[in-house]
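Pair request: fold both.
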Amino acid sequence: MTDEEMRSAEELLGEAEPWESWETQLVSWSIGIAIVGLVVLGWLINTFILS
């Protein structure tokens, strides 16, 4: 990329939003809870339905 393209990209991106930090935490917690939920549901199905 040329210097002009780099400056243009930086202008488009701008500053980070003020709520970016807690939004990132929210997404991380949501993904973590989803993974734990899949593990628990998989164990329940394996224990009670497939056995």
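--- second member of the pair ---
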Amino acid sequence: MRKEKGIHLYISIINFNDIILQEESQTGNVIHSLHALDTFFTSIEQYGKKVSPQDFVIEKITGSRLHIYVLGEPDPAFHVVKTISSYAHNLSKYINSDIPKYKSLGDFKIQIGADYGKFYEFEFVSNDKFTELTTIGYVANFAAKIQALSKPSKLSISKNIFDTLSEDEQKKYEKIENKAIEKYGQKYFYSIPLSSVESPLHISDEDLEFAKKYANSDNLSDIEFTKIRKLLNFQNLSKTQCKELYGIPVFADVRGFTTLFKEDDSNLEEMTETTQNILKAMYGVSTENGGIHVQFQGDRELSLYHNIPESNVSGSVHAEKKCFKEAVIASMRMIDAVKPYNVQIGIGEDFGRLFATKIGARGEKDNILLGETIIEADKMEDKYAGADQIAISQKVYSGLEIEAPELAEQFTKKDDYYIIAIGHKQYLRNVSSNQQTYNTSHNSYNGAWGDLQ
């Protein structure tokens, strides 16, 4: 773990979900979207390393968002940020207009957010030797929030960065007041159209043409989505070797955690230790209860539980393995697992077809799930799940009714989704109470209650 300072930069393709849904509905796959996403982010990585080989760092890809940080003092770091932002803006137009294989896709619409401050580089290492780089600190969280609030085709920056600019440059930015950042101890951020960002370095035709050469280095026909036959292993995947499966993505997000980081970084060490413990607890629950860790997204974890089709191995038939009960029980366990750190989480789940792959930045290191199901699971967590709540879609609930009806009974219907607000320990107490009531009324023991996890 290493303490650093610099600018956190988030580049997001804000209409990528729409692009995926359109391609999936029209063709039944997401091959063009996947390929274009990989080309876009890989080209930014290549250009960033050319501009600032020592200080430009790709942290990870989370869905359609690229996490970057630029080390150093504010002025030189922001010079890199402006150059990268201008390149990304030009590239987002070039991808569709100049690369024929992507012409069927909608134009990429991007938004960018940035903040400057201190943070820790943390390499998560699990007991099973899994590693994942992530950064911890107020600056990472606030930059992500600014990016989410930024309008399309805008670069938005924090007051920390704005105050370092010359008076002439400050005049180019619009001052934005937003109540959503008050909990961060902030009142304003500042935005400029990406078309008005002046790159300190000339962006040549050759720089953009790298994307075309990279896109043409393999054929779309080389991308293969094969069906899942056993538990998914991301280590066996690549941009061309992908998997199609049916499962439940589980988003687990720590509620209100970002606001616990003090803007002056006075509790950075303490919060870094707490964050590590929370991430380890989440990872442990996921991997020890039938799930697959996909990635950390700040203080949020994405994990996956999926069905495994019926198989015949050496004459022995193995029935189809369902994932509904497994995913919900693990989510309950996760609520309990983080309580010792005085935090609460909200969890969202959906069930359906998913596409799994590894792409782009840092040599295909990033685990990616694509498809409408991941979009819906994200919405369940973000819009519907409160603190210590699990929000599931109708599809998850329907599967749960069949696989574990006693568990489905614990959920309450809300519009077109279902909510439960208990951890696993409370669930066991509820079931035990129901069992005692049943036994008393029937003067018997019902073995159906015995199969609990």
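Observation on the second member. The chain has 14 helices and 20 strands.
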